[in-house]
Amino acid sequence: MVQKSKRPPVTKIDAPVPPKRRGRPRAYEPDVALGKALELFRKDGFAATSLDDLSAATGMNRPSLYGAFGDKRELFIKSYRRYRDDARAAMADVFRNELPIRKRLERIYAVALDIYLESGPRGCFTVMTAASEAVHDPDIRAMVLEGFGELDKAFAACFRLAKQKGELSGSADPTVLAQLASATIHTIAIRSRAQVPRKELEAIVNGAIDVMLRA
């Protein structure tokens, strides 16, 4: 009797496991990373902030940084745009609020000081950081000048309305007063960066308002 050979057991082959996809970690959030870069540029400036610093602050390696934001200059510009958007949003309501002119100016400067002193004496990104780069970079210079122009126009609208209401003398020039008001913003930005106490900054503001409203 011929003995049948036993067939070896059939091994069941599982379906191939798809390779794990590589890329940015799930925790990566562009807005959060950009905010971290903004904080670093605002604290240390453009030249003193290295790509390694940015990588450490954002938790992203260099290839990921380049892929998401471009080179260091592009990341700086995007950070500056983010700062301007945030500052514009913070100031928009108080500029629109038609309070009596003194109260209105006091509120505007109070909000500005909140921004400049937030998380330490950072000052104004435009005045303290972007303006330095504007000397050599025409794109950044255009952004800085645009920011100055927007602020002047916003203050001029406040003074024009105050003049219409009779809160200012008939000889008051809203354009000139707006430039003085903007200059006061720049002054407290610089001094706040130098860690001048808030009470002293508020005294400067109050004195400047007195001068502007006597014009």
From TrEMBL:
DNA bind region: 50-69
PROSITE patterns noted in UniProt: HTH_TETR_2
Domain (HTH tetR-type): residue spans on this chain: 27-87
Molecular function GO labels: DNA binding
Keyword Nucleus: no
PANTHER family assigned: HTH-TYPE TRANSCRIPTIONAL REGULATOR YJDC (PTHR47506:SF1), TRANSCRIPTIONAL REGULATORY PROTEIN (PTHR47506)
Name by which UniProt lists this protein: TetR/AcrR family transcriptional regulator
Organism: Bradyrhizobium archetypum
